[in-house]
TrEMBL record:
InterPro entries found in the cross-reference section: ATPase_NBD (IPR043129), Carb_kinase_FGGY (IPR000577), Carb_kinase_FGGY_CS (IPR018483), FGGY_C (IPR018485), FGGY_Carb_Kinase (IPR050406), FGGY_N (IPR018484)
Protein name (database record): Xylulokinase
Keyword Kinase: yes
Molecular function, one GO term: D-xylulokinase activity
PROSITE patterns attached to this UniProt entry: FGGY_KINASES_2 (PS00445)
Organism, as annotated: Microbacterium ginsengiterrae
Primary enzyme class: transferase
Length: 499
């Protein structure tokens, strides 16, 4: 028998699973694509029952294809922070509300900030309240959907939902809990009782553990539904961006993980609790670490939109974009097609394409979109550093790392060297590693750099530094100069969709 760990991650656009051998080799992988629901402007949600259905489908596929695999532990991971409220029988009372791309809770953010005080919220939880704050979305359900709220008894996120279905344990990791602002005390590493009782008093508090801790063992019922042997240990898991950082070894002090996906995420790791109004301060995936994190609301989603709009395939678009060259022949794009998270924290921001002429091509547009995401990354990195983040190493991960051009554009725009590891499949691989670590004998725990060594380094073209410094300045000024009109358009969009 071949000893393996199983890692499964529920992402924004798909659920991915991997079967990983003891040395880190991926034995097999499986994916189930899905879509989120956008029933109103600013709403992004998903039926949580899909998560379990896809989990069981993936495990069934992997296990049946490899009957010689002995699964010794299971790792779980998922997008977040999400808000899935369930009743006393663990039945969802409504669709899960997704992370910061869902911007419905603006009124609750304002009310809670007024009631508690922005300074006190930051002192307790580390971050101001933004569209990323899961606590404000809990309050939204309480305010706007009283029937669902009346039945709500438990709080889950994708990873903890899978852990619950597999083991019966009701747990949540500290990292995810720290994004349930303002309900978590970051220095005390515990739920903040006064505010939990005020805004979520009828919800049973999940037990807090760390991402790699064992939540429980696979029950007989879960074994029958998944094919995973009864009694197999399951870790608590955490949010996908943090699991991705684990998958590439970018969770040490001084590391910055840059995740290329449907959205883009950045996680800087340190020992100190850094606070800045425009970023997210969180607990780390491991005890003794803190993170300063940020995220773009669109990255891969923007390039996918252009692909659909043009009808071209990615290889052709990338070739056209490469031919377009730096600056996209005078185009500049703001990538705020779904509002923006950090560092501007503006749910009413919208995409802007500036400089268009009849001479511009689809390659120019695609190049400008890649540069837009890179400019957004630079804005985040500079904001982190201004807050005191010591960023010594950048590690890239996610599906977007398969294309060299996007990586090169980001390095050129930011001036940063990026390391690309051998395996960039992401959070499912990190979940499998955490599971392997959780059941390893003392002194024989796996090392991620052995599992997943760096195989490519992207160096910035220093000849482009001055050019991109100028473009970044224009990027910042374009947002400030256009946001008044853009906010009016966003309000009109909301009124039209609700009317």
């Amino acid at each position: 028998m071949m000893r393996c760990t199983l890692g499964v991650d529920v992402g924004t656009s798909s659920t991915k699973g991997v079967l990983v051998a003891e040395g880190g080799e991926i034995v097999a992988s499986a994916t189930r694509a899905h879509e989120v629901d956008r029933p109103h402007a600013g709403w992004v949600e998903m039926d949580a029952r899909v998560w379990w259905d896809e989990f069981t489908g993936i495990t069934g596929e992997l296990i049946s294809a490899h009957p010689d695999a002995q699964i010794v532990a299971v790792g779980v991971s998922g997008m977040g922070p999400c808000v899935l409220l369930a009743d006393e029988n663990d039945e969802p009372v409504r669709a899960a509300i997704l992370y910061g791309v869902d911007t419905r809770s603006g009124a609750q953010i304002q009310r809670m900030t007024d009631e508690l005080g922005a300074e006190e919220i930051t002192r307790v939880g580390g971050s101001t309240l933004t569209s990323q704050a899961a606590g404000a979305k809990i309050a939204w359900v309480s305010d706007e959907e009283p029937e669902a709220w009346r039945r709500a008894r438990r709080l889950f996120m994708p990873a903890s939902w899978l852990a619950r279905r597999l083991t019966g344990a009701y747990v949540l990791d500290h990292q995810s809990a720290s994004q349930t602002s303002p309900l978590y005390d970051i220095e005390g590493e515990s739920w903040y009782e006064p505010w939990w009782q005020r805004y979520a008093g009828s919800i049973e508090q999940p037990r807090l553990t760390w991402a790699g801790d064992i939540a429980g063992e696979v029950t007989a019922e879960a074994a029958a539904g998944t094919g995973i042997p009864e009694g197999t240990p399951v870790i608590t898991g955490t949010i996908d961006a943090w699991t991705e950082a684990v998958s590439v070894g970018a969770h040490e002090v001084g590391d910055l993980m840059l995740m290329y996906g449907t959205t883009m995420f950045l996680v800087s790791t340190g020992e100190d609790t850094l606070r800045t109004p425009s970023m997210w301060t969180t607990a780390g995936a491991f005890p003794g670490t803190r993170n300063l994190a940020g995220g773009l609301s669109t990255s891969g989603a923007l390039t996918a939109w252009l692909k659909g709009l043009t009808g071209a395939d990615y290889p052709d678009l990338l070739a056209d974009a490469e031919a377009s060259g730096p600056g996209a022949n005078g185009l500049l794009v703001l990538p705020y097609f779904a509002g923006e998270r950090t560092p501007i924290q503006d749910p009413d921001a919208r995409g802007v394409v500036a400089g268009l002429t009849l001479a511009h091509t689809r390659g120019d547009l695609y190049r400008a979109a890649l540069e837009a995401t890179a400019l957004g990354v630079r804005h985040n990195v500079e904001t982190m550093r201004a807050a005191g983040a010591d960023i010594r190493r950048i590690v890239a991960v996610g599906g977007g790392t398969q294309g060299r051009l996007w990586l090169q554009v980001v390095s050129d725009v930011t001036g940063l060297v990026q390391q690309v590891p051998q395996t960039t499949i992401g959070a499912s691989y990190g979940a499998a590693f955490l599971a392997a670590t959780a059941v390893a004998d003392t002194g024989s725990a796996p090392v991620i750099t052995d599992w997943n060594p760096v195989t490519a380094t992207i160096e910035p073209d220093l000849n482009l530094r001055e050019f991109y410094d100028t473009l970044f300045d224009r990027y910042l000024r374009l947002y400030e100069g256009s946001k008044g009109v853009v906010h009016e358009l966003a309000a009109e969009q909301r009124g039209r969709r609700h009317g």
